[in-house]
Structure formats: C-alpha cells, structure tokens
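Second attempt. The first submission of Glycosyltransferase had a stray character pasted in from the spreadsheet, which I only caught after the job came back as garbage. Lesson logged: always re-copy from the clean sequence file. Corrected sequence (463 aa) follows.
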Amino acid sequence: METLNDDCHVLLVTFPGQGNINPCIQFSKNLIKLGVNVTFSTSLTAFNRISNLPTIQGLTFSPFSDGFDGNFKGSMNNFHEFNASFRTHGSEFVKNIVEDRTKQGCPFKRIIYTTLTAWVGMLAKNINVPSTFLWIQPATVLDIYYYFFNGYEDSIKNCSKDQSLELNGLPLLSRRDFPSFVFADSNDWTLVAMKEHVELLNGEINQRVLVNTFDALEFDALKVLKNVTMLGIGPLIPSAFLDGNDPSDTSFGVDMRQDFGDYMDYLDSKAKESVVYVAFGSYSQIPNQLMEEIAQGLVLCKRPFLWVIREGPNGEKPFEKLSCKEELEELGKTVSWCSQVGVLQHPSLACFLTHCGWNSSMESLASGVPLVACPIWTDQLCNAKLIQDVWKTGVRVNANDEGVIERNEFARCIEIVVGDGEKGEEIRKNAKKWRDLAKDAMKENGSSNVNLKAYVHEVLLGE
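This time the job returned cleanly.
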C-alpha cells in the first residue's frame, strides 16, 4: 500500500442502491491502496441500511438527505419521484461540499460519479471540476446504450424476438438480450439517465471511463467507443475473495464467518458441489408465480439448496404462500439474508440460480460457480446472454409462449449445470477458467490493477 497523498483527494458520488454501493466501497479501497484519499457520498437511504461501515484511513463518509432517507413508500413505478428528489438534494450537497473544500484550501482533485448519476458529471462540468465516470455494469451494456443513442434506436426497438442484431464489437443480440430500459418510454427516468451519460461521453474527447470488468472478459466491448478509453478495473469485490492476502477485506470490512450464522453450518454439513444457491438480489420483488415455479423446480431436482427469500415491503413472507413449503423444508434451507460473496466461496456450492445482477454475476465468476440465469429486467438480460453464449459459464432459463418459466425448465437447467453430462462439464470447466482469469486481473501486474494504477498516476496525480 502506498502512502496517502495529502494533495490527492477525490469525491465519489454514487446512487443509493446496493448494486452501486458494494462495488464503490471496493473501488474506494483500491484507490486508497494507491495513495488516494476518498470522500464517499450517497444519500441516507443507503447509509441508513448499512450496519457496518468500514473504518479505513483515507476513507471519509459524507451522506446527504435525499428527502426520503429510506422512507420512500412508492412502488418501482413511482421511483422517478425518489430519483428527482435524490438528484435535487444531491446537486445542492455536491456543490456545497466542493465549494467548502476549495475555500479551505484543499479542493477535490476530481469528482467520480457512477451509473445513474450523470447529473453529477453535468454539475462538475458547470462548476469547473474535472470528473470521471465509473460504470458498474458490463462494458457491453454501456456499448448498447451508446449505440442506442447514436443512430441505432429504431433498429434496437424494432428488433423482433426471432431476429438478431449485429453491432460492431458485440455478440449477436436478439430482443431478449437488450437491457429492458431501451424498450421503455422515452421519458422514463432511467432511460433519460442513460441518455445523459451518453451525451456526456459524446461531449468530450480522450476521456477515460472506469468499468467494473476486466480486459480478458470483455476485450472487444472495451474498445467499442471511439472517443473514449474504457478501462477495466474489476472485479470490484472484496480482495479476500480474489487473492486471499487480506482476510480482513470482506464486505464492509466485516469478518464473513461471524456473519454467516446457522446457514454456514448448513453448508458445512453438505457434500462438495452439492448445494443449489438461489438469490435474486436486494430489491427484486419476485412475482408469486415465479416463486412457486422455482420452488417446484427445486422439489423436482431433489437437491439440497440455500434460498434467500426476502420479506415483502410490508413484512409479507413469500415462503409461507408456497404450496410445497413442507417438501422444501425437508430438502434445503431458506434465509432472509446471507453474505453472498462468502456463500459463493463455500466448497459445497454446486450452482447459483440468479437474476444476473452484475454484482452477483461478477461474484460468481470470481468464485468459479456455474450459473442458472433467470434475468428479470435492466442489464440482467444482457448479462444472461453473456453468461450463456459468450463466457459459457451457465444456462439461461426459457419462458413458455405465455411468458412463464415453468418448474420443469428450472429443474432442467439445474440438472444441466450440476449433472454429469458433457455440457455441465464444459460449464464447470469454463467457470474455473474465468475464476482464474478474474483473479489474475487483480494481481499486482494484472490488467485491472495496471489500468487503475495508470489512471491514478496519469489523471489524479498528473505524473
């Protein structure tokens, strides 16, 4: 670790979602190891949910009110209200904290902003502070948005389910492989946010974009944008699960074994590569029908499982509504929360049935765990495409003509991934290959470490 440079301090502003918070915490730690001081900022909606903030020299937390502070009661359909409030309050906060530090004679060297916070980049431009974009989804997804807002909107929106679209540098994509937001109304706040990101990219030349991926994983996708240098600096997951050199560097600086509870005992009791792990992220409200089909699929498989089932927003308990809960209780274990990166490292894991959020995808990739991909929305659809057809570390479930993913399909895909067949063996072999490549990328002379060092020395330190 390099000595902290008192003259090099950055402000990192991120959207208050767990999918944003977790990689940004790791990114902050990586910057600090290179001598950069970081002020990490997002709204109280996120900070009020974090029970164990890391205490690290060089890392300062500076939360602000978003007007709701964790008490937003609207549905996903009303989330634009939250985002508007977050943006208004955040703009005032960022402007004030930048001005205060400048008056104190210790200005921020740069503002770094993340996915869904293009307004930070726009504000930085207005107040003449240099900024850098940290994209926390695959480079492929950023490329798709770039194409979409640079002449390909009609081609993408009119792509039928039986048609594939060829975009330079990307795999062939069908309608089900595109991020769901590209099919949203043009006024949808998420699509507007993506458009703002692309407009910022179009507005400058020779800028660097940091991406939570690594060179070997998305070699071509990282080179698609002609006026931008995309730098793979991932996987942004705790170093304890990449190189093992710092066992204290786990999620939010907490010892994972202490957080596991009795589900660690459950995993310890199972044979190697025997357990099916099921989890659908922090915010995904899984429809009751999908829950039932997953449950019945697990019953059909008759394999031990660990399933994270979160309570509903009003305290509902989805597990209690399942028609086969007695059979499930005999086969496996359900929990309301677990330390996912730790679970994925456990030798009893056979596969991961996942919604394909990018954090989950990267964590499983770095752990060498094969996937059953069940994407729901946003970038998850594209991630599932990459998992099945490009990296070949899993299989994607298919819906029937009515759009329902049936129990037999879940059982079929699980058996492919964990079974003794040729395809399962290939998937497991690929999973281990990408695990090793992910770890290599984060080594001292690995591509991601070299890319981040170059960014720090050339951009932040000006050497």
